[in-house]
Amino acid sequence: MLGLTIKASWIASVASVWPDKLSRDPNQTDWRLAPSLFRRLDTRYGPHEVYLFASPHNAHCPRFFSLPASPGCDAVDALAQSWVSGNLWANPPFTAIPRVLAKIQADAATVTLILPVWLAQAWWSEALAVSNEAYLLPRGAGLFSPGRDQQPTPSPHWRVSIFRFERGGRRLPPPSGATPSARSWAVPPPTAALPPLPFIASAT
């Protein structure tokens, strides 16, 4: 109808080194939470509508945002989208965690967020301060699987936690005489322990 012609041609790997590398390397952030545990959390906090930072291989929700563009995704780059409405799920890349926490507060978003227990990071105290609930996920093999391969992994070397934010989380008052700022709030010590995730009898 438009008078366009598409012609495919083969390009040797040696002539396309970088794109070829991207197509062959595994995505180190493409991890999928065990379906049984996701269902347990979806029973407690769901139903979740949109999976942020996902791919066709690891998305548990009917809709998902991905980077780069993937078949079936609703949008590209979760951080560039509005989180104002909906019940969201996020298992973000570690490097994106500070921006994710800032966006949750800026958009007053409702999000269930997976975070590594990383006490040395400044964002850990912030997450403890503003989340509505936070729990340790169980330790053990099969907690995650690579999204593409779907093969359960050994028990991770680090603990993993789940944080729940309702409409941006709690709004804590700044200390007396201080300029209101998310990072100036009086936050709990980073060593504050999280309780294990409570058992939900109806989850299977």
**Overall strand count:** 9
Tell me the CATH topology: Rossmann fold
CATH A-level architecture: 3-Layer(aba) Sandwich
Give the ordered list of helices and strands. Answer: HEHEEEEHEHEEE
Rg, alpha carbons: 20 Å
The span between the termini is 52 Å
Going by helix content, strand content and strand pairing, the class is: alpha/beta
What's the domain count? 1
In spatial order, strands of the major sheet run: 4-3-2-5-6-9-7
The low-confidence parts are 16-28
- What's the average pLDDT? 76
- Please give the count of helices: 4
**What spatial form do the alpha-carbon principal axes imply?**
globular
CATH class (first level) name: Alpha Beta
- Tell me the strand percentage band: 15-25%
Polypeptide structure, described:
With 204 residues, the chain is an alpha/beta fold. It has a single domain (27-141, 150-184), classed as Rossmann fold. The chain is 19% helix and 19% strand. The protein contains four helices and nine strands, in the order H-E-H-E-E-E-E-H-E-H-E-E-E. The chain has helices spanning 17-24, 35-45, 97-106, 122-130; strands spanning 31-33, 50-54, 63-66, 75-76, 87-90, 110-116, 133-136, 144-146, 160-165. The chain has a seven-stranded mixed β-sheet, covered by helices on one side. A two-stranded antiparallel ribbon has the order 1-8. Residues 16-28 have low confidence and may be disordered.
